[in-house]
Amino acid sequence: MILPIYVYGQPVLRKVAEDIAPDYPNLKELIENMFETMDHAEGVGLAAPQIGLPIRVVVINLDVLSEDLPEYKDFRKVYINAHILEVGGETVSMDEGCLSLPGIHESVKRGDKIRVKYLDENLEEHEEVVEGYLARVMQHEFDHLEGKMFIDHLSPLRKQMIKGKLNAMLKGKAHCTYKVKTVKK
Ligand code: NI
């Protein structure tokens, strides 16, 4: 089932999300719905707060990029109770967008190497060092679990430049091809 994506201004996007228990109701169905919602909106990642749930569940699909980055062929993964333990490596700037911030794309600086822990779809625990594009997407998505969005990383000047678009979203205006839930709806 395709779910509406919560847009900037929705309080759930600013909450610190919580770990879930292994018996969280209908978890499998929730994950399927998140994949379907992400695919429909043509995103590479989606965090549960973006569908209104303040829990630490993230889906990532990098298969869509595998024409340019063959190492991500068939890469579709869910990360449950996901946490970043450490950010390091080199600081790299890259353009980012977000399904909860339609129409905004800005360059964001992030480290290119991280250490993360999470549970996979079988609720098995992993601790990994991740680099490159996946480290970028994970930081963006896992930020959502801390109540952060990529615009929080921008300079005051860049923030000023997108203020009009943000204010429009707060008034319920969001132009995109997928179903959204703004504060006014
Ligand atoms: Ni996002």
UniProtKB/TrEMBL annotation:
* Coiled coil regions in record: none
Which EC numbers does the record give? 3.5.1.88
Q: Which SUPFAM superfamilies match?
A: Peptide deformylase
Q: Which organism is it from?
A: Bacteroides muris (ex Afrizal et al. 2022)
Family annotation (Pfam families): Pep_deformylase
Keyword Transcription, does the record have it? no
Signal peptide location: none
Active site: which residues?
A: 141
Cofactor(s) the record lists: Fe(2+)
Which reaction(s) are listed as its catalytic activity?
N-terminal N-formyl-L-methionyl-[peptide] + H2O = N-terminal L-methionyl-[peptide] + formate
List GO BP terms, alphabetically: translation
Its Gene Ontology molecular function terms? metal ion binding; peptide deformylase activity
What is the annotated role of this protein in its UniProt record? Removes the formyl group from the N-terminal Met of newly synthesized proteins. Requires at least a dipeptide for an efficient rate of reaction. N-terminal L-methionine is a prerequisite for activity but the enzyme has broad specificity at other positions.
Q: How many and how are cofactors bound here?
A: Binds 1 Fe(2+) ion.
Q: Name the enzyme's class.
A: hydrolase
Note the CDD domains from the entry: Pep_deformylase
The keyword Nucleotidyltransferase appears for this protein:
no
| Record keywords | Hydrolase, Iron, Metal-binding, Protein biosynthesis
Q: Which InterPro entries match?
A: Peptide_deformylase (IPR023635), Peptide_deformylase_sf (IPR036821)
Tell me the protein's name: Peptide deformylase
What protein family is recorded?
Belongs to the polypeptide deformylase family.
Q: Which of this chain's residues are annotated to bind Fe cation?
A: 98, 140, 144
